[in-house]
Structures are given as structure tokens and as C-alpha cells.
Amino acid sequence: MFWQKKIIDPNKKNYRFITGTDDDKFCQRVSDALNDGYMLYGEPKLSHDGKKTICGQAVVLINKAPSRKIVI
Fold first, then answer.
1. Cα–Cα distances in Å, from 30 out to 1, 26, 38?
2. Suppose 60 and one of 41, 42, 70, 72 were both cysteines; which one would form an S-S bond, judging by CB atoms 3.0 to 4.6 Å apart?
3. If residue 29 lies in a helix (H) or strand (E), which one and from where to where?
4. pTM
């Protein structure tokens, strides 16, 4: 169930940068990472090569995510 804590594989990378063309496959890869214990980190990056849009999104494991200080 969604409320149960997932067991995280110790061999998983703490940080991943997912890249691909701006399509359903890229969105599914990001969704799969989120379902696999990762969280979004930073803003998505977009680039264009003259033919297609290329996307990139960083993700980090939830239990290894860096803490952020809030500066006011």
C-alpha cells in the first residue's frame, strides 16, 4: 500500500539525472523514479536541438536527500 515504507536497495544511486526527449517515455521514467523512492531535486532543464526538445530532471533518494537551509 502507498502508506507502507518501501525498503530501499542499498545499491541504488543517491542521485540521478534523467534525460530524454520531451515525450510520454521521459515523463514515465521520472514517474517510475518517484515511485521507486526518489524525489525531485531542483528544476527541470529544457534544451532544444533544432528538431526536438530535450528534458532533464535530477532526482535524489528520499532518505539521502540533502537538507536545505532556509535563508530569510
1. 20, 6, 9
2. 41
3. helix 24-35
4. 0.74
Nearest alpha carbon to residue 22 among 62, 49, 3, 4 = 49
Residue 37: name the closest of 70, 66, 59, 67 by CA: 59
Instruction: Using DSSP, state whether 35 is helix, strand or coil.
Output: helix
Q: How far is Cα 34 from Cα 8, in angstroms, rounded to an integer? A: 12
- Looking at residue 35, its amino acid is N
Round to whole Å and give the CA distance between 17 and 43. 11
Give the three cell numbers for residue 40.
525531485
